[in-house]
Amino acid sequence: MLAVVKIAGQQFKVKAGDSLYVPHIEGKTGDQVEFPEVLFTHSGSTINSGTDVQAVVKAEIINDMVKGDKVIAFKMKRRKGFRKKHGHRTQYTQIKVTAIA
C-alpha cells in the first residue's frame, strides 16, 4: 500500500517500512506517532484521493533530533561596505513508517 501524507506542511510518499526525515516533531526516540492527514492511497488496483481517503499513517520515531546541512545566507552591497552573514541548520526527526491503516 502506498500513501501520500501531509506532515508539517510538506507532502511525503510513504510505504510501510519506509524510513524518512521530516521537519522536527515533538516526541522522544521510540514514541509512536500518527498522521491522520492522508491525501492519497493506492492499494493494488484501488485508488482513493481527496475526501474518499479513510486512512491513518502510523510511525515510530527513530531519532528525535537530526541536524541538516549548514545553510549560509550572505548579503552584500557592492561599494558600500555592507556585508551580512547569517547561517542555520534545520532540525529534522527521523521516523519509520510502521503501518498504513
Shape: elongated
Structural class: mainly beta
Q: What level of helicity do the residues show? A: under 10%
Q: Catalogue the unreliable spans.
A: none
Question: Number of helical runs?
Answer: 0
What order do the SSEs take from the amino end to the carboxyl end, as H and E? EEEEEEEE
Q: What number of structural domains do the residues give?
A: 1
Report Rg. 19 Å
The largest sheet has its strands arranged as 2-1-5-6
Distance between the termini: 10 Å
The mean pLDDT is 96
What portion of residues belong to β-strands?
over 45%
Main beta-sheet annotation: 4 strands, antiparallel
Quantity of strands, as a count: 8
How would you characterize the overall build of this protein?
This protein has strands at 2-7, 10-15, 19-23, 32-35, 38-43, 46-49, 57-77, 82-100. It is mainly β and 101 residues long. The protein has one domain (2-100). It has a four-stranded antiparallel sheet with strand order 2-1-5-6, with no helix packed on it. A hairpin with a 2-residue loop joins β5 (38-43) and β6.
